[in-house]
Write a structure and sequence with these properties.
It is built from 1 helix and 7 strands. By secondary structure, the protein is an alpha+beta fold. The strands form 2 sheets. The chain has a 4-stranded antiparallel sheet, with no helix packed on it. The chain has a 3-stranded antiparallel sheet with strand order 4-3-6, with no helix packed on it. The longest helix has 15 residues. The radius of gyration is 13 Å and the shape is globular. The model has no long low-confidence stretch (mean pLDDT 84).
Length: 89
């Protein structure tokens, strides 16, 4: 249980104090690794251009105002929209 608590605290710390923040508003591939993306407007993630570590994933929409957390999002590409992507150096 200590390991789970430490892992949870690490994720919380990262989300409160990210090392690098990127504004992504284009359709080119961006290199992470990212641990979270927050949609500034309805945004479609183009999974064919991403490394999400999700098997059999399809493009998905992140509604405006929603933040999604990832483990292992190494590259990110949008089909449309605008997001803030958070990563640690």
């Amino acid at each position: 249980s200590e390991s789970l608590l430490k892992s949870s605290l690490d994720v919380l710390s990262d989300s409160i104090n990210p090392t690098v923040v990127h504004l992504i508003d284009d359709t080119v591939e961006h290199t992470g690794p990212y641990f979270a993306i927050a949609a500034l407007e309805d945004s479609v993630v183009d999974v064919s251009q991403c490394t999400t570590n999700i098997i059999d994933a399809a493009d998905f929409t992140i509604p405006k105002g929603v933040t999604i957390y990832f483990a292992g999002l190494t590259t990110l590409s949008l089909a449309s929209g605008k997001v803030i992507a958070y990563k640690n150096a």
